[in-house]
Amino acid sequence: MEMHHLPFKLRAITLAVASAIIAGQPVSKARAENTLSADSEWSCEVASDGSGWHCSVVPLKQGAMKRAPRPVITERATPASSTATQSKAAETTVAVSQPENVRTQLDWVHQSQLSDTQRQTLKQDEPWCSGTYVEPPRPGKFFKGDPNSAPIIADADASTYQNSIATLTGAVVIRQGNRQLESDEAHLDNEKNFGEFKGNIVFREPGTLIVGDTAQSQLDTGRTEIDNAQYVMHESHARGSATAVLRNEDATMELDDATYTTCPPGNEGWQLSGDSVTLDPSTGYGTARNAVVRVQNLPVFYSPYLYFPIDDRRHSGFLYPTVMGFDDEGGVEFDLPYYWNIAPNYDATFTPRVMTKRGFLLENEFRYLTEKDEGELGVAGLIGGDQLEDDNEYYKKDRWFVNARHRRQFNSNWMAELDYADASDKNYLDDFSSSLNYSSSGPLNQRIMTRYDGGNDYTNWQAKLDVHKLKNMDRTADDPYNKLPQIELSGNWQATDRIQVNYLADYTYFDRADDWNYAFEKPHSGFPNNTKILESVYNEGYGIKRAVGSRAYFETGMSYPIHRTWGFLTPEVKVRSVNYSLSNLKENEVMNDLRNSYVGQTFKDSDFTKSPSTTVPAFSVDSGLYFDRFTNLFNTNYTHTLEPRMKYLYAPHVEGQEFNPIFDTANMGFSYNSLWQDNRFSGYDRLADANQVSLGITTRFIQDDGFERMRFGVGQIFYFDDREVYIANNLGQPGSIPENEKDRPDEDLVAKDARLRQELRDSTSPIASEFVYNFTRTMSLRQDFVWNGNENRIDNYALTYRYRPDHRKTLNLGFRFADQVDRFVKDRDGNYIKTGEDQHGDPIYQKTKNDLKATDISFAWPIPYTRNWSAMGRWQYDMTNKRNLEELFGVEYASCCYQVRLFWRSYVKSTDNIDHPTDRSGIYLQFVLRGLGSLTGSSGKEYLQGISGYTIREK
């Protein structure tokens, strides 16, 4: 018989049993009978009257234990104090588990029998499960020391001892530290440190349960083998069976002819089987030879050698292959990722992707983390070129994508950051997406930045150096400006207890490619005319928008905030200045551009400058009051607040800002928050003039526990002067009639500018309001409303309803409206449709409504009368143009052991011809074996992120 090891010290067991026997007898009798003959042995049983042990000398039973030759093991002396403790402990009765129940249930507890805390945890983490594994209470369960040095405690209905062999029978329980072994019968050899256990074996240690028929063990090292076994790993929610389980000294388990699953007892949703399986809790990983994965007893995957995780830690090995469903542009996709856990702080993932229409693509991502550095490097590319022929300008061309991110923390104040991404073409991410962690869904960042934070108790300051290029990934949009570089210093100073000083200095050099201005799309010159392949036409731009150069912006201000429990008052003075040094401008173009764009203004040729500058002082007083009262509504106590607010703002009009380029500035939309802003522009290229007072009032209902039940705010700006500074919408147009009709923007920019100029002359702003009502902490309604009383129209409106009662349920209903000027209609070739000529002979083009009017409905919800099934969907509809922007519907089956998602998606791209979009669709399948991984990778799950509140739950 092979020698195996069990984590019990045999001598301690023997001494404990012998001491208990001797202690239970009269001293004289113990002394008289302690000397046994060679053919006799001690036999002890529990007395029927419960008074203790009844012991006697009986003839020696031959063959009680078969012993094979064992290696010689040096004896260890057992301290007397330990012996005494063990003798006393041996008298303690231990509650014995019911072996048959343990073998059947494997510590699985139905949710109805869980405690309230356990039931709540199950509901949050595993809402699909009917129960969970719970290790029952037992002595020593929470022992924290070294089990090998802990005293032995043994209990049995009867025991005998002769010639170094102890035999325990009937409800045998042996415990050492946090480990425990139960059986019907045990034979323990003191000299050989070896034991045999027979009948209803139950072996426990923290997080592990093994049951079987027989066990053989080497007791001084902890090595044991259990035959015909079943096992559970509680924390991993994993169980299985094996013809033999070998538990090694290092707690690894070697299983013969074994199975492994995370499904609960009685459920064989999925199961991994192998000729031999090794589970290593110390690394959190398992291996299997001749591994077969079955789903509902149907083989779906085979590997001669398989790595798989048994917890959440990272491990090297092939991940499961991916079949990502079908997509119109890629076909069927198959992935086989390989994860390389190089070190605790380094890893890499290699993902070969086969797309039936595109070819073979390989992605590689490397990540690292050190004490001061963290980052990642990624590269992806088609091997052998793009194989899609139809309507593909990249046929047989190499297509690739790279990204790199790095962050260095030199010390607590100083850091540096790199964020770089690049692609072979603008359509790469649309065509292939990426599993790489790139940081932008719009233009790709190509940036390096360093920042230093300084200060003390009275001042805080920050210095930043940033070099930032942006690669345009939209083939129908202008290239953005690059900042090469941007240097910024900002901070604040608490000059006195009341006076605060703020400052900002920013120097930026703006540059971009010569051909940056998107003009139109035309049939690709390299392909036959009957194809649908288009190419974008770019040019160098026109007028003031051609500008490149440097901008220096300075801002400093001083405020004197006064705060009381009943209100606040904050006067502030501020000075802003912006200065330019420009190039790449043509004087005649700039002057024509400004004269065509700023209607009603006079520009002299002598006004032209390549170094415009603007300095604007500003003064403001912001004030507010706070009233509250206690009230009771519908049997609920509230604090009802009334918070009026008033802000006066003055900034004089400074002429000549039309010569300032538009590097990073835009007109901001109007909302309730706009009432309190100092500048109606984003960026520094326009410094707004103002002579106005903003009035607003907010009211809230707040419960005693701080929960805000309702908030409503409404306000308006009253203007004392017309506003003079604005950004014309049709800047950069070569004239009122484009040389090529496809150069014409989609919107009627002349009408858009006329509306803007009218708004600048109005004596009041639109009325802006916000309303938020929280029905509960999981259900809310929000409304934003902007009413233009001067034109009797709704400028903006948004209504959003959200309901998320738990992790499985979310419902979102949204509606948005924005009043916009009309746009021009396009035919299928992208041409504007001419309807006639005006009195000057200029063409008149067909126009249509361009208001933003869209609905967005999304949900994820369990299907009634089922525990495991959920439905999910999203529908975005453009009411103005009567088209579906996105349709998505799917179902999800989630259980304790596996999860399946199947959904269909139909969508149009934002770059499509708005009047004649191309509908695209795809079917996506994802299969996740809980505790083992995904058989289908991402499978389009990024599209589900648009369902607000939906959580991708995978383990």
From TrEMBL:
<dbReference type="InterPro" id="IPR007543">
    <property type="entry name" value="LptD_C"/>
</dbReference>
<feature type="region of interest" description="Disordered">
    <location>
        <begin position="77"/>
        <end position="97"/>
    </location>
</feature>
<dbReference type="Pfam" id="PF03968">
    <property type="entry name" value="LptD_N"/>
</dbReference>
<keyword id="KW-0472">Membrane</keyword>
<comment type="function">
    <text>Together with LptE, is involved in the assembly of lipopolysaccharide (LPS) at the surface of the outer membrane.</text>
</comment>
<dbReference type="Pfam" id="PF04453">
    <property type="entry name" value="LptD"/>
</dbReference>
<protein>
    <recommendedName>
        <fullName>LPS-assembly protein LptD</fullName>
    </recommendedName>
</protein>
<dbReference type="InterPro" id="IPR020889">
    <property type="entry name" value="LipoPS_assembly_LptD"/>
</dbReference>
<keyword id="KW-0732">Signal</keyword>
<comment type="subunit">
    <text>Component of the lipopolysaccharide transport and assembly complex. Interacts with LptE and LptA.</text>
</comment>
<comment type="similarity">
    <text>Belongs to the LptD family.</text>
</comment>
<dbReference type="InterPro" id="IPR050218">
    <property type="entry name" value="LptD"/>
</dbReference>
<dbReference type="GO" id="GO:1990351">
    <property type="term" value="C:transporter complex"/>
</dbReference>
<dbReference type="GO" id="GO:0043165">
    <property type="term" value="P:Gram-negative-bacterium-type cell outer membrane assembly"/>
</dbReference>
<dbReference type="InterPro" id="IPR005653">
    <property type="entry name" value="OstA-like_N"/>
</dbReference>
<dbReference type="GO" id="GO:0009279">
    <property type="term" value="C:cell outer membrane"/>
</dbReference>
<dbReference type="GO" id="GO:0015920">
    <property type="term" value="P:lipopolysaccharide transport"/>
</dbReference>
<feature type="domain" description="Organic solvent tolerance-like N-terminal">
    <location>
        <begin position="152"/>
        <end position="284"/>
    </location>
</feature>
<keyword id="KW-0998">Cell outer membrane</keyword>
<feature type="domain" description="LptD C-terminal">
    <location>
        <begin position="397"/>
        <end position="863"/>
    </location>
</feature>
<feature type="compositionally biased region" description="Polar residues">
    <location>
        <begin position="79"/>
        <end position="97"/>
    </location>
</feature>
